Structures are given as structure tokens and as C-alpha cells.
Amino acid sequence: LRLSFGDNDLSxxxxxxDNDKSIKKALSQIFPTSRQLFCTRHLKDNxxxxxxxxxxxxxxxxxYVYNLIFGSKGISSSDSAVNFALKCGKFIKEFNASHPxxxxxxxxxxxxxxxCNLNLQAHEWTNNNSESLNHVIKQMFDWxxxxxFRVIDLLFxxxxxxxxxxxxxxxxxxxxxxxxxxxITPKVDIDxxxxxxxxxxxxxxxxxLHNSSKASIGKSGAIMLxxxxxxxxxxxxxxxxxxxxxxxRRLRKSTKYVS
Length: 259
Description:
Layout: H1 2-5, E1 14-17, H2 21-30, E2 35-38, H3 40-55, H4 59-70, H5 81-95, H6 100-109, H7 111-119, H8 128-141, H9 148-170, E3 176-178, H10 190-195, H11 198-211, E4 222-224
């Protein structure tokens, strides 16, 4: 990937991640002049887990700390570097004596990501879209490894499927519907659309996207709707957050012997 950029200026290149250490280390070595974004959803979830599982705070205490950082007037909503520094200093001063471990976690895991998001004016950026597509790809690969040529073919089939779904959404069919911002003029009925050649359909779709007032979810201009079933991993019966683990009962070894 680095070689594909050649001698171009990489200072305007921005990478987004979930604050994973290995990703940050790789980017700092391969793209040292690039900038980074960090998913606020992961930052929030990690903070909640730390306060509950490591510190052992009750719900009201966790909510207080959470709002100081991610609340509407918290550190993450700072509108300038000066305001950010003032709020960070106030937070550290408040907890430095009573909860030094919170201050250590804040300095280790939150100050840098929040400052990076502030510099790029992306206070609430998340990587939800990329993770969603990543899950779709894993489902198609059935969580197995394939050769690069097989991967390219499968990715191409995903793009083809999205194009077909977008075409169905235009004429009101399928599990998708067009976003309100997509402007279709003139409208076409099902019979007329199906009678068009492949090239004519492609031109028609490009015209629709060009006339749209603003970008919508996905390049197809369609909002994904899955009314019946969400994505599941292999042998997964429920979503992870709501799931309960089940295991077979282990038979205790009897210490009694039958003579």
C-alpha cells in the first residue's frame, strides 16, 4: 500500500481505527506523516468496561466520569485546543488524588485519540460502516482464508450484488429502499426498467446518483434494510451483547466404588 502512493504527499492522508495498538504502531512506522482518527464508540465502550470491571464503580459514579469525558459539555466536545487542554487539566486535578488509576488510564488511552479527533474536527467519528462491511466480507468468506485471487473475485461479487440491489430499489423491489435524498427524475416503471439494456440501466443509475442532493449510505444510494435476520457468526444463535453462554454439564467423578 505504501509503495502505491509513490512520492505523493502523505501528510493529508487520514487513517481511522479502533485505537488498536498494532494498527497505531504499523501506521506510525509505514505512514509517519499521516494523521489518525479513532472510533469514539470503541473509546466509550472501553472506558465503561474499565470503570466497571477494573475500578469497580457503581452506575452513578461511572455515569459522572463518562459525562465529564464524552458528555455534551465534556472533553470530547471541545471546540478548540485551549478548551481541550483546560478540560483535561480540570479532569486530572479532580481525580488525581482519589482515583489515580483513572487518571493513568485517561492519559494512556484517551488524551491522544481525543486530541487527534479534535484536530480533524471529527468528535463523533466511528468505524461502524467499515466494521459492518468487514462482517459482510467475513460472512461471505465463511471465516476462512483464501488466496488473493479468490478474495478479489468475492469482493467483486459483493459489489455486483450491491449494484443489483440498488437497481431493485429504484423500481421498488427487494429488501432495500432509496434514501429520501435520492432524486429520481423522471421516474421509471418496472417494465420499462427491465426492458432497458445493461448499459442503459447503468447510465440511468449514474444519472440518479448525480442528481442526488447529498450522499447517502453506500455508493448505491440505498439504505440497507434487513427486516428478517441480522448477521450472525457461525453457530451463533443470538447477538453477542444479549447472548448467554451455554455449556454441557460436566459429570462429576464419583468417589464411590461399587463392589
